Amino acid sequence: MTLTPDTIFGKIIRREIPANIVYEDELALAFTDVNPQAPTHILVIPKKPIVNLATAQAEDQLLLGHLLLTVQKVAQIAGLEQGYRVVMNTGQDGGQTVYHLHIHILGGRSLSWPPG
Ligand code: DGP
């Protein structure tokens, strides 16, 4: 069995370090990003420690769908009626720094495209 390494997000899930949690259910947690790149910058993560999208398994299908609908719910809670961007940095070239799957929700300003 491959053990998933613990990360800072595991510590947030276990309440070992503080976070500004904006939503939680049995499968997911959402909290504000410590280094916000937009007026609203929230991370949605599964409680299950999946490394990233590239390593997700077929058995994670329902969980991944749940995370996207959690993004929708959190965006509504955050009042992002004007729209928002959803980002999943995946692996080294994707700019991933925390190896626990997470979805960035960015909003509260007009976002440019393409990203750097
Ligand atoms: P990524 O580059 O996609 O792996 O983004 C990781 C994000 O996690 C980054 O935007 C900063 C955020 N982050 C890192 N450590 C912490 C932390 O301890 N608390 C919170 N709230 N966010 C963190």
Automatic annotation (TrEMBL):
<feature type="active site" description="Tele-AMP-histidine intermediate">
    <location>
        <position position="102"/>
    </location>
</feature>
<dbReference type="InterPro" id="IPR036265">
    <property type="entry name" value="HIT-like_sf"/>
</dbReference>
<dbReference type="InterPro" id="IPR011146">
    <property type="entry name" value="HIT-like"/>
</dbReference>
<dbReference type="GO" id="GO:0003824">
    <property type="term" value="F:catalytic activity"/>
</dbReference>
<feature type="short sequence motif" description="Histidine triad motif">
    <location>
        <begin position="100"/>
        <end position="104"/>
    </location>
</feature>
<dbReference type="InterPro" id="IPR001310">
    <property type="entry name" value="Histidine_triad_HIT"/>
</dbReference>
<feature type="domain" description="HIT">
    <location>
        <begin position="8"/>
        <end position="116"/>
    </location>
</feature>
<protein>
    <submittedName>
        <fullName>Histidine triad nucleotide-binding protein</fullName>
    </submittedName>
</protein>
<dbReference type="Pfam" id="PF01230">
    <property type="entry name" value="HIT"/>
</dbReference>
<dbReference type="InterPro" id="IPR019808">
    <property type="entry name" value="Histidine_triad_CS"/>
</dbReference>
